[in-house]
């Protein structure tokens, strides 16, 4: 069994990490909440913003295995 088709409207077992809603262009750019480095998001972007490195590491931690 390589793939199983999910019924229409069913949620994914392992959803992809969501990007911050309402990305706001910079400058000025917001600081990463993990390491403090500048991010690609403007300071008015709502939610938790991460720099590209921390974003990648967070995706690795929350990715499905196997």
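^ structure tokens above, recovered residues below v
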């Amino acid at each position: 069994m390589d793939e199983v088709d999910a019924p229409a409207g069913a949620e994914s077992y392992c959803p992809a990490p969501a990007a911050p809603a309402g990305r706001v262009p910079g400058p000025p750019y917001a600081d990463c909440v993990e390491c403090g480095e500048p991010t690609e998001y403007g300071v008015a972007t709502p939610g938790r913003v991460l720099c590209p490195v921390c974003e990648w590491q967070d995706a690795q931690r929350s990715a499905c295995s196997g």
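Strands lie at 29-31, 38-42.
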